[in-house]
Amino acid sequence: MKSGFLKDRRVRVASRVLVAVLIIAFAAFIVLQLYSQRQKLAEIRAEKERLETRLEELMREQERLQSNLEYVKSMEGLLRYARENLGYIDDGETRIDVHD
What is the pLDDT along the chain (100 residues), one digit of tens a residue? Predict the structure, then answer.
């Protein structure tokens, strides 16, 4: 009778140890998952900041280009382009070519 009692006790102890090991393993898994998610979140935040900075740069560039486009479409811009690229001269002006 004593032999059966010891066997039952060993089974109960072994099952308790197994449950404890499973609980510890599960807790370790949860901690690792939380750590991994925290790292991923930090990476996403850094990428968001980088993209927001790039967006601001592109918006400034768009404003600059829009301003240049408006200037080019103006009479002043057209005359300047014609002078610099097509050799346009206005009435009463004299063209002087300088060659090295």
Answer: 456 666 788 888 999 999 999 999 999 999 999 999 999 999 999 999 999 999 999 999 999 999 999 988 898 888 888 888 888 888 877 777 777 5
- For residues 12 and 5, give the distance between their C-alpha atoms in angstroms, rounded to a whole number: 11
Mapped onto helix, strand or coil, the DSSP state of residue 11 is helix
The identity of residue 22, as a single letter, is: L
- Answer yes or no: is 50 within a domain: yes
- For 89, residues 6+ apart whose C-beta sits below 8 A from its C-beta are 83, 95
For residue 49, give its domain range. 2-86
Asked if residue 39 is part of any domain, the answer here is yes
Q: Classify residue 79: in a domain, yes or no.
A: yes
pTM of the model: 0.54
Please list, in sequence order, all residues whose beta carbon lies within 8 angstroms of the beta carbon of residue 90, skipping any fewer than 6 positions away: 79
In a domain, 94, yes or no: no
